[in-house]
Specification:
elongated; 6 helices
């Protein structure tokens, strides 16, 4: 048995060992722990609620109803699939998302009365604020 024949399996393993770190390091983007936590869908919902809340509170429900489909679309975009990968307290955020979905779904009924509209829009604000706080949106996580 020649030395070349004995070393051939080891040379294959050596080549794989050299190649494996290159493949492992070429994976998808993983945010650094110091990257700010961003959740564009949640930010858009916050902005829309900031626009609609004064309308509802001043009794301009007809104007708010005109934006109901947009509110549904933006509200449903904030879900477990869009949670940022570097979000804090993932499980707590998921529970809060359940509360948000319950509110958003109440807007989907065909005959939505003004009282329900007001209650839902006003009720979404503290939930969205709590989701932002719990997930750490706008902050830089430390030591994750």
């Amino acid at each position: 048995m020649s030395l070349r024949r004995v070393l051939r399996p080891f040379s294959t393993l050596l080549a794989l060992a050299a190649f494996l770190p290159l493949v492992a390091c070429s994976g998808g983007y993983a945010p650094t722990p110091s990257a700010p936590i961003e959740w564009p869908e949640l930010t858009r919902l916050e902005e829309l609620l900031a626009e609609l809340t004064p309308l509802v509170e001043s009794g301009k429900t007809a104007e708010t109803l005109l934006k109901r489909n947009l509110l549904l679309e933006v509200g449903w975009a904030v879900n477990h699939r869009t949670i940022p990968p570097n979000a804090l307290h993932d499980e707590e955020v998921r529970l809060l998302l359940g509360d948000l979905v319950g509110k958003v779904n109440r807007l989907a009924v065909p005959a939505l009365d003004e009282g329900t509209l007001r209650e839902v829009v006003q009720g979404m604000n503290p939930i969205v604020a709590e989701i932002a706080k719990t997930s750490g949106v706008g902050t830089r996580p430390s030591g994750q």
